[in-house]
Amino acid sequence: MAAERLFAEHGISAVPLRDIGVEAGQRNHAAVQYHFGDRDAVVRAIMESRGGQSEVVRTDLVAGLMAGGVVPGVSDVVDAFVRPLAIHIQPDNHYLAFLSLYITEEGGYEGLGTGVHTGASVITLRALLPRLVPEIPEAVLDERWWVTLTSAVHTLARYQAGQSKGVRTVKIDVLIADLVAYLSAGLTAPIVAGDPRVAVPD
Q1: CB 75 within 8 A of CB 181
Q2: Angle at the Cα of 64 (from 59 to 65), degrees rounded to 5?
Q3: In a designed cystine with 117, which of 45, 76, 112, 173 is the match (CB 3.0 to 4.6 A)?
Q4: Using the 8-state DSSP alphabet, how is residue 70 labeled?
């Protein structure tokens, strides 16, 4: 996908639609603008396509978590978010690098707005957390969840970039297990004393 690769290499805001048409081999260099209209529409198309692939995998994982009457743990929730992202660590798949840059440009995962960047499965995972960590105030949990999503994307993108450059690193299953453990610990960490988001009893 020409647009995905160019965005991943140069940043979303730095790539003219004309360059995407040239890279895609379009004789009419205005074809991309004619088809999509603007850069935001190209971005949405990438996220709908690649995000949809992750959503299929994640939906199955979430269904497994909800089946059998067993209450999942925080690490199960985090794993169900992280693992479907890792399917994009493939040759000629630039989605993680693209998404990592997009998140940075938009000021965090929450800056992407609602819709295609999450999907119903991610919303379901987030909804499970208050029951699993009731001692964490909602405002704090919300911020930690955004950090979890953002950190997962950046970590996997960095891993893939290292792979492409021949950097020796751990196997992907080891990385995912350690990343899930790390992010789960962050979600359940004790509240910092004096955090203004924590309600003080009268």
Answers
A1: yes
A2: 100
A3: 112
A4: P
Cα 26 to the chain's mean position, in Å?
30
- Do residues 125 and 81 lie in contact, with contact meaning Cβ atoms separated by under 8 Å? yes
Nearest to 145 by CA among 87, 186, 90, 111: 186
Residue with tokens 């979303």: 12
pLDDT tens per residue across span 14-65: 777 766 655 555 555 455 554 556 778 888 888 888 999 999 999 999 999 9
The residue count for the chain: 202
Within a 10 A sphere around the Cβ of 80, how many other Cβ atoms? 25
The structure's pTM equals 0.85
Name the one residue in this structure whose structure tokens are 């105030």.
137
